[in-house]
Amino acid sequence: MQLPDYWLPRPADDPSPAVRAAFDAIWRRARDDGGSVLIDDELPAPKWQFLSHLADVHGLALHGSGDPSIAVFEPRQANDLREFGNRRAVYAAGDGIWAMFFAIADRERIGSVTNACVRLADASGTSSAPYYLFSISREALPAHPWRTGTVYVLPGETFELQPPIPFGEYEARIPQLASLVPIRPLARITVAPEDFPFLGQIRAHDDDRLAEYARALETGAAWPD
């Protein structure tokens, strides 16, 4: 399927087997240390690749935040148009880049947010690589409202995955995760704006037209001018 150009494919530079092995060794050390250890190892590849590896290979949940010292994530009531995202829960991402956006975006300065991460699956069940969309309020974008943040690594056992939704002849699989019980993080990693691979491709939108942008995302239409 040919998606509109506002959908950003995950960068294609997959880590080598040696890099993946190094990621696994770093994760084992952090996991065995326990207590939400800060992963400050010298990574052999960009941080987004490491976080994506933790989600894709190890099935871990990731939560981006501006707070570097969260000891326990408690369920909170969310505000979302879809039932899955409108519950009292701990929400996280099953994707490294998506979680990074929430870590580096200063929520007090960005205004409203339109964002998405999807994989498209065909009738055979074959799934694409992830596609992303990131947009903030038009008035906020020129001020570069970014910060250094933290991505927390959470155990995946109590999280449920958002059910897939139809997208034309495809199925959109969205790696949004929800846990109805409190979660203690296993580890955390500091991320800076320059670690985010799409920093220069974040879009702007008009706050009073959010419904138009949502319809475009759901139908594959062009980005509203």
Notes on the structure:
With 225 residues, this protein is α+β, with helices and mostly antiparallel strands. It contains four helices and 14 strands. The strands form three sheets. Strands 1, 6, 7, 10, 11 and 14 form a six-stranded mixed sheet that branches. The protein has a four-stranded mixed sheet with strand order 2-13-8-3. Strands 4-5-12-9 form a four-stranded antiparallel sheet. Strand 10 (165-167) and strand 11 form a beta hairpin. 34% of the residues are buried.
What distinguishing features does this structure have?
6-stranded mixed β-sheet, alpha+beta, 4-stranded mixed β-sheet
Order of secondary-structure elements: EHEHEEEHEEEEEEEEEH
Relative strand content: 25-35%
Percent range of helical residues: 10-25%
Question: What's the total number of strands?
Answer: 14
The major β-sheet equals: 6 strands, mixed
Distance between the termini: 23 Å
Computed over alpha carbons, the radius of gyration is 17 Å
Shape: globular
Characterize this entry briefly.
The chain is α+β, with helices and mostly antiparallel strands and 225 residues long. The protein has helices spanning 17-33, 47-58, 96-104, 210-219, and strands at 8-9, 37-38, 61-65, 76-77, 88-93, 113-121, 131-137, 149-154, 160-161, 165-167, 170-173, 176-179, 187-191, 203-205.
Furnish the topology, listing elements before pairings:
Layout: E1 8-9, H1 17-33, E2 37-38, H2 47-58, E3 61-65, E4 76-77, E5 88-93, H3 96-104, E6 113-121, E7 131-137, E8 149-154, E9 160-161, E10 165-167, E11 170-173, E12 176-179, E13 187-191, E14 203-205, H4 210-219
Parallel strand pairs: 2-13, 7-14
Antiparallel strand pairs: 1-7, 3-8, 4-5, 5-12, 6-7, 6-11, 8-13, 9-12, 10-11
